C-alpha cells in the first residue's frame, strides 16, 4: 500500500510502498503533491532511464536539454560536458527564468552519490510569500525584476573573460513581476541567482532588496534538504520551488539523471 508523510512543515512529501510508478493512483497523488507540497521523494525506487522517462511523461511533455531527454548532472568533467556550467547550481535558483514559460517540473534519480556533501536544498516560494509581513507584500506587489543568465554565472566566475561574457549575453534578459500571480489564485515569489536588478531602483538598493528577499525565502522553516541515496527519485515543481546543490568535490562520483517537464504557465 502506498503511504505518504510530510518531510517538512512547509513543503515536501515522501512516498513509501511504491511498486509501480506508472500506476494511475500514484501518478494522480504525485500531481497533487507537486501542486500543494512542491517536492516529492521516493527512496530507493531505482528507476532506469526508460522508466524515468515513462514516469516523467505521465506528468507532461519531456523537453530535451541539449538534445538529451535524460540529462546527466555532475560537476566532474569526465561525467558531463556541462560540468562547469552546472557549478551555478550551487546557488539558489529557478530553472527557465530566461524563458517566457518556465519548465514545470524536474525529476532526478541518483545513480551515484557523493561521499561528502552533494545534497539538494529546496525552498518554497509559495510559503515565503504567504508568510510575508503585510508591509513587505505591499512593497513587492508592483516591483518588476530583470533576470539574466549572466547574473547567475557571475556568482561562479566573478571576473569573466570577454569570451565568457559574450557567451553569457547570448541568453536573453527577461523582465517579470517579483510577485507571480498564479492562474489558480495563489501567489509566489520569483527570486534566486538569476535576479539581476529591480527595474527603476538604485543599484545598491536593488541588490540589498533582492538579497534580503532571498534570505527570507530560503530560511529554514521554508526548506527541505534531501540527502541522496542511490536509487532515490525526487521530483519538484520548478515554478514555485527554489533549489540548489550543496557543495561536493569535483572528483566525486556523484551522478544524477534528470528529466525536465515542459511548463504551461507564463511568468506574470
Characteristics:
268 residues; alpha+beta; Double-stranded beta-helix; eight-stranded mixed beta sheet; three-stranded antiparallel beta sheet; 8 helices; 16 strands; 27% helix; 26% strand; globular; Dioxygenase TauD/TfdA family protein; metal ion binding
What does this structure look like?
This protein has a single domain (3-261), classed as Double-stranded beta-helix, CATH 3.60.130.10. The chain is 27% helix and 26% strand. The strands form four sheets. Strands 1, 2, 3, 4, 5, 6, 14 and 16 form an eight-stranded mixed β-sheet that branches. Strands 13-7-15 form a three-stranded antiparallel β-sheet. It is built from eight helices and 16 strands. The termini are far apart. The protein is an alpha+beta fold. A hairpin with a 6-residue loop joins strand 1 and strand 2.
Topology diagram in text:
Blueprint: E1 3-6, E2 13-16, H1 24-37, E3 39-42, H2 49-59, E4 62-63, E5 71-73, H3 83-86, E6 105-112, E7 120-124, H4 125-130, H5 134-140, E8 144-147, H6 149-156, H7 162-168, E9 174-177, E10 179-181, E11 187-189, E12 195-198, H8 203-217, E13 223-226, E14 233-237, E15 241-245, E16 255-261
Parallel strand pairs: 2-3
Antiparallel strand pairs: 1-2, 3-14, 4-16, 5-16, 6-14, 6-16, 7-13, 7-15, 8-9, 8-12, 10-11
